[in-house]
Amino acid sequence: MNLQERAGDEGLTHFAFAPPRTTPVIRHLPPLPELLGGRYRLDSLLGVGGMGAVYRARDLLREQYGDPAPQIAIKVLNDDFAEYSDANALLYGEFALTVRLRHPHIVRLYGFEIDHDSERAFITLELLRGPTLDALLCDRPEGLDWTELQEVALPLLDALQFTHANGVLHGDLKPSNVILTDSGLRLFDFGLGQPCEDLLPGLPRLSRGRFNAWTVRYASVELLEEGLLTPAGDLYACACVLYELATGKHPYRRLSAKQARSLQIEPERPAAMPTVAWQVLRKALEIDPARRQQDLGEWRAAWQPTAAAAQPWWQRLLTRST
Ligand SMILES: Nc1ncnc2c1ncn2[C@@H]1O[C@H](COP(=O)(O)OP(=O)(O)O)[C@@H](O)[C@H]1O
Ligand SMILES: [Mg+2]
């Protein structure tokens, strides 16, 4: 099994390092200190992804001034990445893209800083508490019922529509990058994001030639074959995630879009999904980008509930148990 297949199996982001034009300098970094920037005390590790590690931390300055909620999250790059001399630009790219997206369903970033002693760059951000969609799928292997699914799908579609409307592509939408908190859903991890063509021209662009990255099972065929990130590619990933939530199963048996195309796999219609909603989802799952659903507004309209509940189901559960 090659690296790409293995990454697909584990749902991990896979990085293919194309040879850089000049050899990057590898820095030998000291271990991550417990106190970053003289201000943030790292408490515990919250999660590790393909690229970063996220810690729960306390902002000692806020604490000193009596702030009752000084807890934040801190994202640093994994040691493998942090050791490249230009890795900080990678983290800054994520910061710059996300910080301009102010939306109730997108994670809020606070700042980008460097700890000078350890030479580590880090992002300070909103601490999110709740299950990721990954964890939810482990708890609900048969998937969600239609009303529950709508309550997850609509804020996710809103977050994605807002992201695209603001000139940003997420590039790595998957269950482990979406979380359900007591104050609603949040889309996070724009580490592989990039600005849409001709938008945000002043923003540093990462050379995707060097950091070709994708999560195989959610990557569109154009991303796999040409390294092309497009709004329609984000829609493909979103469709795979929502299909998985509807049925507990990946639409193409956890295979890549390329494999699904050569095997001509036809995703089955989820049992309880209304016809109109399925038609849009099926179109968003099209392997061929020319035939794929392009319009998030239309998708949202087809998935809109008739009468909206005051709070989504997981918030109602959390409120009841506190
Ligand atoms: N703001 C946050 N609050 C709480 N946990 C988080 C936060 N951001 C990320 N995590 C956890 O850390 C994991 C890795 O973070 P992520 O940003 O996805 O890193 P990567 O870019 O390496 O995938 C996530 O899957 C999640 O479990
Ligand atoms: Mg991630």
TrEMBL record:
Q: Which InterPro entries match?
A: Kinase-like_dom_sf, Prot_kinase_dom, Protein_kinase_ATP_BS, Ser/Thr_kinase_AS
Supply the alphabetized keyword list.
ATP-binding, Kinase, Nucleotide-binding, Transferase
What is the name attached to this protein's record? Serine/threonine-protein kinase
* Binding residues for ATP: 75
State its Enzyme Commission number(s): 2.7.11.1
User: Which SMART domains does this UniProt record tie to the protein?
Assistant: S_TKc
GO MF, one term, reads: protein serine/threonine kinase activity
